[in-house]
Amino acid sequence: MRTAPTSRSVSAEGGQASVELVAMLPLALIVGLAIMAVLAARAASGDASAAAQAGAMALIQDGDPHDAAEEALSGDARKRATIAVRGRKVTVTVRPPAALPFLGAAFAATASAHAGPGSP
User: Fold this and answer.
1) Do the Cβ atoms of 90 and 69 come closer than 8 Å?
2) 3-state DSSP call for residue 75?
3) For residue 91, how many C-alpha atoms fall within 13 Å in the half-sphere facing its CB?
4) Are 83 and 94 in contact (CB under 8 A)?
5) What CA–CA distance (Å, rounded) separates 94 from 80?
6) Among residues 86, 78, 75, 84, which one has the least CA distance to residue 110?
């Protein structure tokens, strides 16, 4: 035979659920920040790749690879990018925007593009 739950046991269960919810909030925040960091790193990777390819195309067309790579980046990404041209190879590193500064360097994306052999 079952007995109806008393108001005291129902109240205790509600209090336990509140404690569990409050305990889970930091974990949910950490998971959310991690997801945002991975998405930002993915976007930085795409930016770096597009800029490196634009720089290599400029080399093929006898243009300025540094300027072309810089123009391929959005205004915000330009501030966080490093562009290196060595011979016919263009390398671009983009740090993603990060709420926590130490994560920016950890998730930096680097892409290189080669313009092929030089002209005869």
Assistant:
1) yes
2) helix
3) 6
4) no
5) 6
6) 84
Q: Which of 59, 55, 104 is nearest to 79 (CA)?
A: 104
Q: What is the pLDDT of residues 11-67, one digit of tens each?
A: 556 677 788 888 889 999 989 888 888 888 898 899 999 999 999 999 999 999 999
Provide the token pair at 76. Answer: 């915000």
CB distance 38 to 109 below 8 Å: no
- Quick check: 107 and 41 in contact, CB under 8 A? yes
Q: Are 51 and 83 in contact (CB under 8 A)?
A: yes
64 backbone dihedrals φ, ψ, rounded to 5°: -90, 110
- Specify whether the CB–CB gap between 62 and 107 falls below 8 A: no
**Which pLDDT tens digit goes with each residue over 58-109?**
999 999 999 999 999 988 889 989 999 999 999 999 988 875 666 667 788 9
Helix (H, G, I), strand (E, B) or coil at 1: coil
Output Rg (C-alpha) for the chain, integer angstroms: 26
Q: Find the farthest-apart pair of alpha carbons in the chain and give their distance in angstroms, rounded.
A: 96
State the pTM of this model: 0.73
